[in-house]
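URGENT: need a sanity check before tomorrow's submission.

F., can you look over the GPI-anchored small secreted protein record below? I want to be sure the sequence and structure line up before it goes out.
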Amino acid sequence: MMFSPLAALAVFVACASAITITSPGASQSWTNNGEQTITWTAVQTDPQNFAITLTNTNTTLIPTVDNNQVLKALVDTSTGTTTVSPPASGWPSPGGSYRVNFCNSTEDLSTIYAQSDPFNIVAAAVQSDSSTATSQTLASTPTTPATTPTGSATVTDAGDASGSGSSSAPASTGSSAAPPALGIHTGFVSVLVVLGAFLA
Ligand SMILES: *[C@@H]1O[C@H](CO)[C@@H](O)[C@H](O)[C@H]1NC(C)=O
Ligand SMILES: *[C@@H]1O[C@H](CO)[C@@H](O)[C@H](O)[C@H]1NC(C)=O
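Structure tokens as predicted:
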């Protein structure tokens, strides 16, 4: 008789913790560039949806009030996988001991259904990440700087990667745009010189 409440609680906990986060984890890191993938397994009795947060016991790495950075709300449990975009402030500093939590909702982050193993967020290589890191989302990006001299995509990438590169990116695209204009101008002057020599 005394044991039945405890038994009921044990069953509830077992059901509530049936969601298992399979990635990220000890051997599946994230990079600090672009969308990242989360996968999990679940059973019928699990909640139908949840909210995803990023957390770290080192509070300097997740500097929000409750050490929880909300990544996504109302994720459908049955899909088993989702991608999360960087927070508005970008991914936190590369480092270890990050964890992903599946919570009841953005209003109830303290009810945690599942927690990932600790994983690393590693710095994406600034030059090669566009071709290797997230091939689906960045597939169109490499062609953009090549064809359009405005460089808006380049500026965004530089800001994500370094946070301080936004002022250097326009300068480099500006200087690459300058030589053709200079070349046209020089050509025009030399035509005038030839024309002047011909008239004299
Ligand atoms: C927390 O992270 C910061 C930045 O990476 C690091 O300097 C500091 O040593 C870390 N603190 C602990 C307790 O690991
Ligand atoms: C989770 O949130 C829902 C409302 O969205 C609430 O009805 C439910 O009781 C919560 N579950 C837990 C275990 O707190």
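My own read: The pocket of 2-acetamido-2-deoxy-beta-D-glucopyranose (ligand 2) is lined by residues 104-105, 108, 111 (CB under 6 Å). The helical segments are 4-16, 129-132, 135-138, 143-147, 152-162, 168-199. If you see anything odd, call me.
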